[in-house]
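User: Some background: our group keeps a shared notebook of sequences we're curious about, and every so often someone picks one and asks for a predicted structure to add to the entry. Today it's my turn. The entry only has the sequence so far, pasted here. Could you supply the structure so I can complete it?
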Amino acid sequence: MNRTTPGTLAVTALIGAVLAWMLESWLHAQGRPMLIPALTLPVVLLAVAVLLIVFAWPVRRYTKWLHEEHERAEQRARRRAVDGDPDTADDLAPASPDGAPTRPDPFVALRLVAFAKASSLSAALLAGSFASMLLYVLTRSFIETGSAWECGVSLLASIVLLVAALLVERWCSLPPSSPGQQRQGARGTA
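Assistant: Of course. Here's the predicted structure to add to the notebook entry:
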């Protein structure tokens, strides 16, 4: 599974912004009240961001240890190659698992990555929608300050969720299995 790209997030946010602006304009033309997010929505978005980070923390510890072990193995292989020792293939394996954190279930890590990817796309869509709603509220001749604050707080909460989801995606990335993969820039998530 590939990481979420900034282009995908930008397009998703733009779609959310256009749809929210069209909905607000249609509601205004029909003489109906504007669509304003409830105050519980930012609380839920922040709770999802916190849960994502809490559940991903053990995976982060393990992948951080894997990255460090991979770097140490590459350094040992380089030192042996410089010294002229031809048997460097075994050096790319991690050292003994002494001090290693417990290995998380790969299916849990995969579910976390899928949840983080879905959260980042949802947060981008919501951020675009809330930014559009905030802009729509601020461009009206009569500005209801409560509505502007609710849109602004919801926008900030969706941005926090977006950042948390992208962070969890990064935490769940595995180091390359060989030096050739690292040079090619291939990096998978688990």
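Suggested note for the entry: The chain is about 70% helix and 0% strand. The radius of gyration is 23 Å.
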